[in-house]
Write a structure and sequence with these properties.
The protein has helices spanning 39-46, 54-63, 70-82, 119-127, 135-153, 167-191, 222-250, 253-270, 277-286, 291-306, 321-373, 376-420, and strands at 6-7, 12-15, 24-28, 34-38, 86-87, 110-117, 199-204, 207-212. It contains 12 helices and 8 strands. The longest helix is centred in the C-terminal third of the chain and has 53 residues, at 321-373. The radius of gyration is 26 Å and the shape is globular. The chain starts with 5 loop residues before the first strand and ends with a helix. The chain is mostly helical and 421 residues long. The strands form 3 sheets. It has a 3-stranded antiparallel beta sheet. A 3-stranded antiparallel beta sheet has the order 6-7-8. A hairpin with a 2-residue loop joins strand 7 (199-204) and strand 8. The protein has 3 domains: 6-87, no CATH class; 110-286, no CATH class; 355-421.
Length: 421
């Protein structure tokens, strides 16, 4: 083995806080990609300076009483080469897809995305919002959030006052609150000495959404990552305070409607079933990086064992008893909730497609009326209604397609394994 490998310049290593029973690290590339690796892999990668052959690396490992064959070491480096973090004359090095070694899962991607605010602007703004994470500011902020909810919900428990709310204003204000959500994540990253990335806007499936690059969070301690996870909801609730006060002072129904949507978005974000903020908070709290996969396999094992079928044992990493039961409850609720989501998505789609033949002509008729009367507000209102009528249906279809694809692949793999045996 005469090929001399070298770790690409600019790669950094950070201790990963969250590993159980073993030491793990994060390797971060200059282009902000990050991968979790073992302590042995870290030692091997750090020893690759381009001047030493793999035989030299093997000798060093043997001196440390680490037994690894030359072919295993070569295959290991080929895998890291596919991650674009090594340089070598080896022709096989960069073959294959650029995978981030993520487990097979249901991925609901951004179809389109654009950078809305560049990294330097986000970092500048986030640095000036750090004070909201200081102890006194957090206490004051939480108190204001509680008082704002009383102000919004108690005197305005009836929904009659929001009937005249303009949908365009509601949409723009909601998007503004989501932007506050992303700055909450970015400010938390700055709070712990990280460099927040850009904030972007895209279509998550077919639905508009903001996103923030907080990839540096993996070099933080678990408690710090948990603050970053909740930072978005915290900042969005602070926007609730502002909107609630404005709505109360000016008697503007749009601001109350936005407050209701902010709470709805907070509940959705904190729902750990989906891979939103609540899921990542639970991942960091339980120190289980692949929480969803653990929960799915654990419940499948328990069901098969209860029915008397042979099943490969699935063990949960050792943890405190209360965290174990949190995991068990999550595993049960997660699987039941996903079944419910598929069912309600089916019911929603059947009802929607049944009503579309009536809804779409009404929207198109309103659009034509707005064009004839030069009513810009009505035109934009109906255009937004048309977009969401299509976007919600399309997103539900894509989501069901993803779940169906995973189910088919799972059944196909089981059938193949059965034929082989």
């Amino acid at each position: 083995m005469q090929n001399n490998y070298r770790l690409k310049e600019g790669c950094e290593f950070y201790h990963y806080d969250g590993a159980r029973d073993k030491e793990e690290f994060i390797v971060r590339t200059p282009d902000r990609r990050q991968f979790k690796i073992s302590a042995l892999s870290k030692d091997i990668l750090q020893s690759l300076d381009g001047s030493r052959s793999l035989d030299d690396v093997l000798c060093d490992l043997e001196a440390k009483s680490i037994s690894i064959s030359s072919s295993d070491l070569h295959n290991l480096l080929l895998q890291y080469g596919k991650l674009k973090i090594l340089e070598s004359a080896d022709a096989q090095l960069n073959n294959g897809p650029n995978s981030q070694c993520q487990p097979a899962d249901i991925k609901l991607p951004f179809l389109l995305h654009w950078k809305l605010l560049p990294e330097r602007h986000v970092a500048w703004i986030a640095a000036r919002l750090i004070f909201l994470y200081h102890g006194v500011s957090i206490v004051a902020g939480l108190l204001l959030i509680v008082l704002a909810h009383i102000l919004v919900y108690y005197p305005h428990s009836s929904l009659t006052h929001i009937s005249n709310a303009g949908s365009l204003w509601v949409l723009f204000l909601c998007l503004g609150s989501v932007l506050c959500h992303e700055f909450g994540h970015a400010a938390a990253v700055s709070r712990y000495g990280g460099q927040p990335g850009h904030i972007g806007f895209g279509l998550y499936l077919l639905l508009p959404s903001f996103y923030a690059d907080v990839s540096e969070v993996w070099k933080f301690r678990r408690k710090e990552r948990m603050v970053v996870d909740l930072g978005g909801v915290y900042f969005q609730q602070l926007s609730f305070v502002v909107f609630g006060l404005i709505g109360h002072y000016f008697s503007a129904p749009e601001f109350f409607v936005v407050c209701y949507f902010i709470d709805l978005m907070a509940w959705l974000n904190l729902n750990p079933v989906f891979r939103f903020d609540g899921y990542w908070f639970l991942v960091d709290y339980l120190a289980l990086p692949n929480l969803y996969q653990h929960a799915r396999k654990y419940m499948a094992y328990q069901i098969r064992r209860a029915l008397g079928y042979p099943a490969k044992a699935v063990t949960v990493p050792r943890t405190h008893w209360y965290k174990y039961w949190i995991f068990v409850v999550y595993a049960l609720v997660c699987n039941l909730f996903l079944i419910a989501v598929v069912w309600f998505s089916y019911r929603y789609l059947t009802g929607l497609f049944h009503g579309l033949p009536k809804l779409l002509p009404e929207i198109f008729s309103s659009i034509l009326t707005a064009l004839r009367t030069h009513d810009l507000a009505l035109f934009l209102n109906r255009l937004i209604a048309l977009f969401f009528a299509i976007a919600f249906a399309g997103s539900a279809l894509v989501g069901l397609y993803k779940y169906a694809t995973v189910g088919i692949r799972y059944c196909r793999a089981k059938l193949y394994a059965y034929k082989v045996t």
